[in-house]
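Example record used in the benchmark description.
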Amino acid sequence: MVCELLPLLLSLLCCVQVGVKCAAVLCCRVSPLQKAQVTALVKTWGDTTLAIGDGANDVGMIQKAHIGVGISGQEGMQAAMAADFSIAQFRFLTPLLLVHGRLSYKRISRMICFFFYKNLYYGSTIFVYNAFALFSGQPIYNDFYMTLFNVIFTAAAPLVVGWFDRDLDKNAGLRFPSLYQEGACAEDSSEGWGGVGGCAHCTQSAAERVESSDV
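Model output (structure tokens):
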């Protein structure tokens, strides 16, 4: 039994190795189950997958992928209801990825660094105070203020970043799709613990690339 499956597994492995290096791969006359299986195969290979469909036969593929995009159209709303994002036309996929997807990645990576450093500094003050208090357990902050620290005192930063943080104009993201590779190639601040400095450096390099392309 194992000897019979070994050639099949080797051929499947070779197929995946060739497929992930291609710019595009067409799978013709596949069933809904096979669509999901192909997506799962590429997903297990380590790549981030995005599935887009407009019908009920694409639901399995959409649910299996990391990111599912459904198109609400003449074939019903099954794909749109099962997807993470729903768009009305296929052409809206370009701004969804190059504009909103890129900005979302940069904002989230910036906020992750913010949350780490915010809580690190907050915990450091408690530790230093207890060192001077001979680790007696005396609190430096009132319990009421400690509860409101993440709820109110530092709640404005995520809202401001989510609303207004934009390193480049929307048209720049559409004109230069290579800017999207900052997230795909881990060139943003999440690559290291550079924090806000890493985000600023990444934004500056992106702006310089846009200016050089305009020239």
